[in-house]
Amino acid sequence: MCVIRHVEVARQRRTELSFVDLVAVAFTFSKSPPLTSCYADLAVEMASAAGATGWLRGTVKAVSSGDCLAIMGNTKAEIPPEKTITLSSLMAPKLAPRRGGLDEPFAWQSREFLRKLCIGKEVTFRVDYTVPSINREFGSVFLGDKNVALLVVAGGWAKVRDQGQQKGEASPYLADLLRLEEQAKQQGLGRWNTTPGAAEAAIRDLPPSAVSDPGNFDAMALLAAKKGSPLEAIVDQCRDGSTLRVYLLPDFQYVQVFVAGIQAPSAGRRAAAESAIATEVVPTEQNGDSTNEGRAPLTSAQRLAASSASANEVPADPFGKEAKHFTEIRVLHRDVRIVLEGVDKFSNLTGSVYYPDGESAKDLSLELIEHGLAKYVDWSASLLEDEARRRLKNAELQAKKSRLRIWTNYVPPATNSKAIHDQNFTGKVIEVSSADCIVVADDSLPFGDPAAERRVNLSSIRGPKMGNPRRDQKPDPYARDAKEFLRTRLIGRQVNVSMEYSRKVGLTDGGAAPAGSGDTRVMDFGTVFLANPSKDGDDAAAAANQTNGVNIAELLVARGFATTVRHRDFEERSNYYDALLSAESRAISGKKGMHSAKDPPTRHMTDLLTANAKKAKDFLPFLQRNRRMSAVVEYVLSGHRYKIDIPKATCSIALSLSGVRCPGRGEPYSEEAIAFMRRKIMQRDVEIEVETVDRTGTFLGTMWESRTNVAIPLLEAGLAKLQTSFGLDRIPEAHLLVQAEQSAKQKKLKIWENYVEGEEVTNGTSVERRQKEEFKVMVTEVLEGGQFYIQSVADQKVAAIQKQLSSLSLQEAPVIGAFNPKKGDIVLAQFSADKSWNRAMIVNAPRGAVQSANDKFEVFYIDYGNQEIVPYSQLRPLDASVSAAPGLAQLCSLAFVKVPGLADDYGQEAAIRLSEHLLSTPKEFRAIIEEKDTSGGKVKGQGTGTVFLVTLIDSEAETSINAVMLQEGLGRLEKRRRWEPKDMQQAMDELEKFQTEAREKRLGMWEYGDIASDDDEAPPLRKAAGKR
């Protein structure tokens, strides 16, 4: 009922209701239960009454002196209206102006009292009167139910003006102000302190930087002394959202500080119009006690200055004023902490600014970015710690995604990555492809399923590249160490995989695929956790902090074996990206791995898979002498053939299991045999025993993994067959192999599914009968030693390339100096025999730059196999679109037949006769590929590169050229080996009949009887000088 009575009184006296009464009534209503409609209407009337009396609510934004406040309205506008209110009838001591001078006694203490009392707080105020001559408004301000002016005067921080000069303009509370002033004087409070020396001590000793003389301020010295340490400061001005002018306490150094890591949009620069210039007139009396009745007209100089200033007006950037206001309401005239990070040549400091927010402190830069009012900038962010940079970058990315303020019209760049959701699986690691890519066998898919092996690229990291020996690409530093680090921890271990995103990349180098490109592939990226790490070492320590296990990517980065990818905006990334960046920071500071200043460890390994067969044979005695050796299965080439690394012998070899053969490529169960052995031995530590080496450089021997002969589970699974022609008596544990094969036969597993006791019947394809490739060819060039070049008749690339070449304009000779072909380049060359232009590889070139059109170049025609020397004038540059296609000429040799070279007896006769058979008339032949010899490496000229060992059949006469050369005594059979497959043995049996006929008739090389036996198991050396 007291509330109702108060309201009724208020209804009768509302025009005379004091501000204190209004506040009390409003407070009472806010605490009362819901009112009836009549009392609600009364509340509306009271609000109107408050507006009619001039009382307004607002929040104190700034306090410029002991008697002046800037108050902003409580509205929802981005930038609310503001009023600057000077407390009525008060005069506070004046602070020293920026253009030079001293504080009046107690000026700073007076301003600090009012600042700490009101800054950031909600107040109610009213304008009591205005002084147009100085464009100021004077009023009363209440903080809650307390009159601020009364509190200031009671503390002795301002005096009450002499009323004789005010012409009737005074505070409504003048009597209370005078009474409190007299009490303060009596008590000696504030400016009324009469203690000797108190007035002098209350004047700040300002450094030159605080009075517009920054020349003596040594910013570099301050940074050197205080870098990284928090400095107490008060913000005096906000030039824009990220540039502050502050007083550094306690010395009052006045400096400009750029907020580190960000840049806010410009707030613009106002022009000094006539009215603005007029307001610059400083009153002669304090607090607006001016006796000037009016303003004098502007002089010509003032008008000229106004015109110049107006011309220099700079408009604000979009959201520049909003950013400035955002910063002002948080730090202007407030206590902040500044951590200095750097300084520029103009003595402007760069630092992190922290302002209080309740019990905690907030980072101004992070707040501005989170609200879309500033952008991340590298030039100052580089001064910050990695963690601070990550926070800012992530906040900017989120603001861009939400299109906040300055990012309203932001269009995200095109990205080739796409998020993968809800694809988590467990499995066993079966291969480590590189430091950032592994292959995991998915537990949820059955063995043999093509999708069971999932390639997982580790998210957001990049490991050193392994290189490619076949392309002469060497491994990057630490590439082998990083791969070995993963292999020893992951192979055969259970992992949890969380797929995160996929990315489309180019087929050539793995880089981002250009838009619209068709030559692309999709790579899947995820995070891999090792579920049960070893109990010793850092792995277990890392697992203790992660519920899913050890993050393998984080472990790699922390050891310095990989780096974290710096993603572009809106690119998908690891869900643990921050942890990866932290791990990289630790690796860099600890100088680990690739971040170390030491030279990377070197590892010299001879790759015998890319060497010729003779070099492999040279290693054989050493490998046989060591008997059982420790090794690592680098790759499973087929079910029974593997690439093996032997650290002790510093070499890599191709090892085939003695006496065991799996189905060949394209035959049933071939892929299943490979998948089976990948899970069994891929990249595992094994032991091997080498027996011998075949003519292609593949070693034959036995392998044990965990003391088990790896051929036994292969035979037991019905994925391989024993070859008795190898001679089981020399194979270790041969009886166990026989038992394993017999068990598979009885269970009719895989290749034995149609097995009948006593019959060599399998599932339709003989295990030992290999599927051979056969195609029609044209012979384009004949070399010595039974070698020749062919083109496939059915290859459509021949016509396509010829069409491209015919469309080229090749009349003008190249300009000397503009075209400098070097060894290995693909160019156009004019063939001397028919003056046609063909693609050619530079085999030899003059040293240095081309001097004349007659400089000689040796070229190899990659589409025909010819090689000759041509002058520079007969060469032309070739567009990459034409030169990129591989050469169409394929080097071949007659299978099972050794043809003498030109330097040998009957070598010239053999070369001439072979040319007559192959080149005398244009004809087609059928080529059956018996084997492929890759020991020649890549093509570097005539007679180099991969060699196809073929049986060449004349399509018209249906005769074998291999047999014809033997029949005419111009070649002889290669030496047999007892481990030859049966199909090869049968082919050699057929050819031996023709050799026997030539021997009996004393033809060719058999003219003088049997020739001496040749124990050389390698094919004859290939010479590149042969011509037809």
From TrEMBL:
Biological source species: Salvia splendens
Keywords assigned: Acetylation, Cytoplasm, Endoplasmic reticulum, Hydrolase, Nuclease, Phosphoprotein, Repeat
Cited Pfam families: SNase, TUDOR
Tudor domain location: 820-885
Top-rank lineage group of the source organism: Eukaryota
Sample GO molecular function, one term: hydrolase activity
GO cellular component: cytoplasmic stress granule; cytosol; endoplasmic reticulum; nuclear envelope; P-body; perinuclear region of cytoplasm; RNAi effector complex
Subcellular location: Cytoplasm, Perinuclear region; Cytoplasmic granule; Endoplasmic reticulum
Entry keyword Nuclease: yes
Residues annotated as domain TNase-like: 54-194, 229-409, 423-597, 627-754
GO terms for biological process, alphabetical: cellular response to heat; mRNA catabolic process; mRNA processing; positive regulation of gibberellin biosynthetic process; regulatory ncRNA-mediated gene silencing; response to salt stress
Annotated protein name in UniProt: Ribonuclease
Record carries keyword Phosphoprotein: yes
Role played: Cytoprotective ribonuclease (RNase) required for resistance to abiotic stresses, acting as a positive regulator of mRNA decapping during stress.
